[in-house]
Write a structure and sequence with these properties.
By secondary structure, the protein is of the alpha/beta class. It has two domains: 80 residues, Helicase, Ruva Protein, domain 3, CATH 1.10.8; 195 residues, Rossmann fold, CATH 3.40.50. The protein has 13 helices and ten strands. The strands form three sheets. Strands 7-6-5-8-9-10 form a six-stranded mixed β-sheet, with helices on one face. It has a two-stranded antiparallel ribbon with strand order 1-2. Strands 3-4 form a two-stranded antiparallel ribbon. The longest helix has 15 residues. Bound molecules: S-adenosylmethionine (SAM). The site of S-adenosylmethionine (SAM) has 23 residues, from α6, β6 and α10.
């Protein structure tokens, strides 16, 4: 991952530099898991950012010749990327449910498949009209809280995290989207600061990777805060606490939505009576369960 890139020589068009950049990403064997799933899309993101253009818009004028200065800027960004820095940390932003989110090393790069459920306003699992209070537990950059607030314009949202650093990033994003009046950014170890609160919807992308697996992750994933990834020995420390405590903070008609990634098996072993529902994702991704508040009793009082 640390080889020095030789800058390309000669006059190059944007189209050629995009292809060259994608080849360098592939050659370096970088991991595509933080907002893209292939070298071309990641190259577009990096190259257009280096040119000061929007990476979420179609590539314009692909046959223009790029100046040597422009190419040097692109190579410098690529060099940092192949050395293991996530693209979103290099560009300082990403997109979640189509909304721009500022990110840096204090938070993980937003990529939860929960985005697709938010876009569907959690239908058919809940009646969106009954949702007035939402909790985003483990908010990180605040991406889920912000997307929920925008998808449910009448709802009030609490965005909680144990990391003071992450909460600073979340506040920047809440302000950027002018949502300060509807989103509260709160410091809390799971539910500890939420005594007496009741929500219609609790949404969470908690840390769920087993500690030993975190140690083996690719460099760009290890560049993210360990606190955001490490779910303890089996990966279930936070999720188990959440399942045991959520009932006190959710209305009887409410619903819990939690990402658990590839670690569904361990969850089912630990909670064999749990009534987990696993949505299918058209846009890719998996490992998110939905649980109705009324089914939390099967966690607390297994057969
Ligand atoms: C996987 S990240 C999710 C961030 C964001 N929701 C997203 O989807 O991009 C998990 C977050 O949980 C936070 N966290 C870890 N332990 C926590 C705890 N005990 N209570 C609250 N938040 C916690 C981390 O600081 C991190 O920001």
């Amino acid at each position: 991952m640390n080889a020095r890139l030789d800058p390309p020589s000669g006059k190059l068009t944007l189209r050629q530099i995009l292809a060259w950049s994608a080849d360098r990403l592939d050659d370096a064997g970088v991991c595509f898991a933080q907002g893209t799933d292939n070298a071309h899309d990641e190259a577009v993101w990096l190259v257009l950012h280096a040119l000061g253009e929007r990476p979420d818009a179609p590539v314009s004028a692909p046959d223009r010749i790029l100046s040597p200065d422009r190419i040097a800027g692109i190579v410098a960004l690529l060099q940092a990327r192949v050395a293991g820095t996530p693209t979103a940390y290099l560009t300082g932003k990403t997109w979640f449910c189509g909304h721009e989110i500022f990110v840096d090393r204090r938070v993980i790069v937003p990529r939860s498949p929960i985005a697709e459920l938010i876009d569907a306003r959690f239908q058919p699992w809940c009646d969106p009209n009954s949702v007035t209070r939402i909790l985003d537990l483990c908010t990180g950059s605040g991406c889920i809280a912000i997307a929920c607030a925008l998808a449910f314009p009448e709802a009030r949202v609490d965005a909680c995290d144990i990391s003071v650093d992450a909460l600073d990033v979340a506040r920047v994003n809440v302000q950027a989207h002018r949502l300060e009046r509807r989103i509260r950014v709160l410091h809390s170890d799971l539910f500890t600061a939420l005594r007496g609160e009741q929500y219609d919807l609790i949404v969470s992308n908690p840390p769920y990777v087993p500690s030993t697996v975190v140690d083996m992750l690719p460099a760009e994933l290890q560049a993210e805060p360990r606190l955001a990834l490490d779910g303890g020995e089996q990966g279930l420390d936070l999720v188990a606490r959440m399942l045991h405590q959520a009932g006190q903070y959710i209305h009887s008609q409410g619903m819990l939505v939690v990402e658990i990634g590839d670690f569904k098996e361990g969850l089912l072993q630990r909670f064999p009576d749990g009534r987990f529902v696993w949505p299918q994702f058209a846009r890719g991704g998996s490992g998110v369960f939905v649980m109705q508040a009324s089914d939390l009793r099967f966690i607390l009082f297994p057969a």
